[in-house]
Design brief:
Number of helices: 0
Largest sheet: 2 strands, antiparallel
Protein name: YmaF family protein
Biased composition (Basic residues): 1-12
Distance between the termini: 41 Å
InterPro entries: YmaF (IPR024307)
Low-confidence stretches: none
Strand content: 35-45%
Order of helices and strands: EEEEEEEEEE
Shape: globular
Number of strands: 10
Pfam families: YmaF (PF12788)
Region (Disordered): 1-24
Length: 112
């Protein structure tokens, strides 16, 4: 009996990231959130690539936000064959507000 063929998607690389949102709201409600995670695999774009970020929760105060379907910028070389990506966007709306954020990913494969 023949084994069924399983399509294999070539694994490329991912990036770890961590960051803080910008402040939102005023007065005693003014606050920000922290987040961390790992990007998705490479999405080719021209002669470079990007990654998608789909983070379901920031840290929890009395509410949380998501970073949904955020795309990084193209690869930015930092030497020795390594690169990072710049990320800019907004969280989902919750508790009547959202937060802006911007950060750079960590390098790919830091131990290689």
């Amino acid at each position: 009996m023949k084994k069924p063929r399983i399509a294999r998607r070539r694994q490329t690389h991912v990036h770890e990231f961590e960051g803080s949102t910008k402040l939102a709201e005023q007065g005693a409600d003014r606050h920000n959130h922290r987040f961390a995670g790992v990007t998705g695999q490479v999405i080719p774009v021209g002669n470079s690539h990007i990654h998608e970020i789909d983070l379901t929760h920031t840290d929890f105060l009395n509410h949380f936000h998501n970073l949904k379907k955020i795309r990084t910028g193209r690869a930015i070389s930092v030497g020795n064959g390594k690169h990072v990506h710049f990320v800019k966007g907004m969280t989902t709306l919750n508790d009547g507000h959202l937060h802006q954020f911007n950060f750079a990913t960590l390098i790919q494969q830091p131990l290689v």
